[in-house]
Write a structure and sequence with these properties.
By secondary structure, the protein is α+β, with helices and mostly antiparallel strands. Among the domains are: 199 residues, Rossmann fold; 45 residues, no CATH class; 195 residues, Valyl/Leucyl/Isoleucyl-tRNA synthetase, editing domain (Isoleucyl-tRNA Synthetase, domain 2), CATH 3.90.740.10; 62 residues, Ubiquitin-like (UB roll), CATH 3.10.20. It has 27 helices and 36 strands. The strands form eleven sheets. The protein has a five-stranded parallel sheet. The protein has a five-stranded antiparallel sheet with strand order 23-24-22-26-25. A hairpin with a 2-residue loop joins β33 and β34. The protein is globular, with a radius of gyration of 34 Å. The structure holds one RNA strand. Its main location: cytoplasm.
Length: 835
Amino acid sequence: MSKYPHKKVERKWQDVWERRRTYETDLLNAQKPFYNLMMFPYPSAEGLHVGNVYAFTGSDIFGRFKRMQGYDVFEPIGLDGFGIHSENHALNIGEHPIRVAARTQKNFYTQLKKIGNGYNWDAKLETYDPEYYKWTQWIFLQMYKHGLAYRKEADVNWCPKCLTVLADEQVISGECERCGTKVVVKKLKQWFFRITKYTDQLLEGLDNIDWSETVKVAQRNWIGRSEGTVIDFPVKDSWERITVFTTRPDTLFGATYIVLSPKHALLTDNKLQITNEKEVEDYINKSKGKIVEERTQKAKEKTGVELKGVKAVNPINSAEIPIWVADYVLGDVGTGAIMAVPAHDERDWEFAVTYGLPIKMVISATGDNAPKQKMSKENMRCYTGEGVLINSGRFDGISSQRARLEITESVGGKMEKRFHLRDWLISRQRYWGPPIPVLYCKRCYSSGGEEGVDYTEKDGEHYAIIPIPEEDLPVKLPYIEEFRPTGTDKAPLANVAGFYKSECPKCGGEAIRETDVSDTFLDSVWYYIGYLIFRNQKSEIWHPKNGWSGGSTLFRKWLPVRMYIGGAEHAVLHLLYTRFLSYAFYDLGLVHFKEPFTVFRAHGLLISEGAKISKSRGNIINPDQYIEVYGADTLRMYLMFLGPFESGGDFRDTGIRGIARFLDRVWQLYKCVSNANSAGAGDRLEKIVHKTIRKVTNDITHLRYNTAIAALMIFLNDMERENTILQDTYATFLQLLAPFAPHMCEELWEMLGHNESIHHSSWPAFDEEKLKEETFQMAIQINGKLRDVVTVPVGVSESEATKIAFSSKKANKYLEGRKYQRVIFVPGRLMNIVI
RNA sequence: GGGCAUGUGGCGGAAUUGGUUUACGCGCACGACUCAAAAUCGUGUCCCGAAAGGGAUGUGGGUUCGAAUCCCACCAUGCCCACCA
């Protein structure tokens, strides 16, 4: 047989699979549904990179395995093509996003087909398809109608390069997640989703889902639960009081001053009647313009201004302490005000040192935390740990922990849980997204007072918010030539009169449309449901005016997703938002489950030559060239062989030859296959067959593809040592290899005379009985060191094993006739003589 | 600064979860085939040592008959988050 002709074989089967609809699933009549989902990609200019191939292949192997185990596998694919990412790319190359999308879509699907994954192409979707985003808009309306979407003015993150607001989750270390530009704060009216209503549920739900632990931890951290106390500090000679939140009420005696955030409500209209109003106002204005990064930079010196002519009173000891305003205190964390305890908080320490404010130690470190030398003024440092109270009046000597409760109680404080998670800002002042489906009507505002209608202010005028009626969806994104961001806080659509001028569906009067579009992550919160809807979109039941009522049978059969595979970088973006929406859908009676993904596994990161794959490093790897030279099967297997799927791998193309060699040997072995089908007694390969079935089955189940492939290599090595191979043995081998190398195995399977696809054959079963060995290699150790290895019968007794061990020449050399203290016998494994 | 990982040959990585360290593959060396090369096949390949033997899982300690695996400290690398009161 000549060399394996990968091009011919792969093209042949890709065509046949498509023609025979090998991987399409009858969603309504499936008996054993298994929804195998992979995160759909953002399309980019270069098309698929090898990292995508890595992720998709790992997911596809699992799906193929489940299919062979008898499940009806639903494995859909689509494109997450709406959003800033795609639009920025279009801007970069100076082409309209609609045209870019059309081109990349074609390219992507062609590439995806060449990898040979078993997708349900019938169900494919693109988020920029109006048939898709009419549902994205419908979801917005459901959220709005149930009070989960609202419009409010807030300090928001603004990216000066992308010229749009960003969600908190999209700001990384003060920089825009997409373009790396430093983010500034702006006060704008924006649309939010009320994710904070689900804080507790989202946190608790994590305990009951089978997800990669790293992602759960990331979500817990992002939700950021902290327990503390809310304490009121009265303002001297005033009715006002300053409420602070602290996790360390035990340090209350050490509070030597109060700090208000520049955004604190008490600072407006000089409510505190301070004497240096002008100075404070200047400071507030200055801090407003600061970019987020400048303010959060740890090294950055802290600044602030004292509020003159006013003092706060520490409720525990009636000490009068100064009040400051400083932008190291954030307006949207806690209560926007803190009690500063410089002796026990690093930020307060830094600030107190800068401005010469008093520092009072109230916690003394104990035990292991205790300082080696006695603290003096000179070597004094801030201590943030726990300890015993000092300088705290009647609380002296008690532990931090106890003091938290007792001090809280004695000042009438309230224990409270606080969370870092804040509502999700979903409006974007961009073009390439689904228009938010609401109208603003002036006349409905004037007629006023109607129940269930919200009012808002826009450009200084008052309007009623009128949701677009469901039957009018989608609100189509119009094609406009001038799609560039405007540079103001308005979206490009705000310049398109033909779009925003509209008629109020309620009163028939003039109304204007919302011109912002929604965040990309809203497109992807429901796509796993979208695949089911899309598959059936021709039916009349699938119209937004009917909601999802037509889906209950389908939803119950297929959801939640049984296996979801994707990147861990979406832990607090896509994965948290999706859980949130799913909880909301449940409450709105739209779905029957709360958690959307029963199992989620984060695949590892594929790196190249030790570095993260990125355009700037110039180490992008295009899979096409490898598919061209070696074939898709080889590339698939090579990627999976690099290391455990969940830890990623380093792509060095030297190793790919090894896999190419392996597959070619599998191909060559075909000529050694005998016509005989059933094993005679004493088939030397019987044991390895069953061993490999067990190993590969177990490894695929746990996504340990690298060791599954190693086991198949061992199997091949053993087969090659024989002159002839039984047909059954070879067929079993092909079945085990099929999820990894689907094209070649299909071809050889057909050559063996099968008419049905190998991918619909049943996964081989192993027989425990056939795995039983008669003897094993027993290790003989002396004091835990290996001295000899002997072959002994499997059921050997301890006394027999002891006899055998002591008769070992090698072992005896070390015993030198000495008496042993005892022996440790591990059945089936070893004998350890302790001397 | 916080959280989470990881550290085993020249390299990617195995190790029945506390029991024979280095499976499988790459690379390398030698050999076969060839006029030659490539491809392919075969043999070998943790380190020191002529051998007997000894030493090795980032470093140092501990628990144990026995530790890559468990505990403590330190070092290094990677990822995520970060003025969260």
